């Protein structure tokens, strides 16, 4: 996968992309990162990328020219049509399903805004989609882009040490993930559930499935609204409601 990021603050990405799984993904050539300062594409001697909004109002608006020219530069020799993603609080809320969808892409371009907003022609004519990481406002799109890159790159083949690691992640199955335990089995009187050290894999899987449902019901019941329960899960849920 190729990932381009258009930003006015490229130095912000060095720490995030240069460590841990994201760095390993680049080292193994599962992904290449290209951080571009779109100020370099400004067509004026002062490299101005923003201006006052027509009609008045507070704040400055990003001009279309630098971003259009930057994207055109990045795509002129592209063998596949990239997805151009605008980080914006007005965009569709990001979730695991979208991360899995984007992980199948060959080329992603993230546009990180600043100031009051974008010239509307950027939204209408240039980007593939607008995405928000939540119902809050950040000072810029950089942190949102980092979050999305992390969630997408970890899904690429060979990036995680265990290919099964992400399959049962929270939200990947539609439910929250079950609790985890490790050694020691008894830590200061707090014991690991007996079933997990029983060696009975059928009972362990059943416990994990039930605890996944329990955690979802208690913490994120909204997820169950769009989740199709099987007969066993319906029975468990009825039991949970009576507890």
What can you see in these coordinates?
This protein is of the alpha/beta class and 243 residues long. The protein has two domains: 2-153, SPOUT methyltransferase, trefoil knot domain (Alpha/beta knot), CATH 3.40.1280.10; 186-242, tRNA(m1g37)methyltransferase, domain 2 (Trp Operon Repressor, Chain A, Orthogonal Bundle), CATH 1.10.1270.20. It contains eight helices and ten strands. The protein has helices spanning 14-17, 20-27, 64-75, 96-102, 120-125, 142-153, 201-219, 231-242; strands spanning 2-7, 32-37, 50-51, 61-62, 83-93, 107-112, 117-118, 129-132, 186-187, 190-191. Strands 2-1-6-5-8 form a five-stranded parallel beta sheet, sandwiched between helices. Helix 7 crosses helix 8 (231-242). The chain starts with a strand and ends with a helix. The model has no long low-confidence stretch (mean pLDDT 94).
Write a compact overview of the structure shown:
33% of the residues lie in helices and 18% in strands. The protein is α/β, with parallel strands linked by helices and 243 residues long.
Q: Beta-sheet strand percentage?
A: 15-25%
Task: Write down the Rg.
Answer: 23 Å
At the fold tier of CATH, the topology name of the largest domain is Alpha/beta knot
Oligomer: single chain
Question: Number of domains in the coordinates?
Answer: 2
**Overall pLDDT metric:** 94
Helix/strand-derived class? alpha/beta
Q: What top-tier CATH class of the largest domain fits best? A: Alpha Beta
| Strand line-up across the major sheet | 2-1-6-5-8
Percent range for helical residues?
Answer: 25-40%
User: Termini, distance in Å?
Assistant: 47 Å
Low-confidence stretches: none
Sketch the topology as an H/E string, one letter per element.
Answer: EHHEEEHEHEEHEHEEHH
The H-level CATH homologous superfamily of the largest domain, spelled out, is: SPOUT methyltransferase, trefoil knot domain
Q: Summarize the biggest pleated sheet.
A: 5 strands, parallel
Shape: elongated
CATH second-level architecture of the largest domain: 3-Layer(aba) Sandwich
Number of continuous helical runs: 8
Number of DSSP E strands? 10
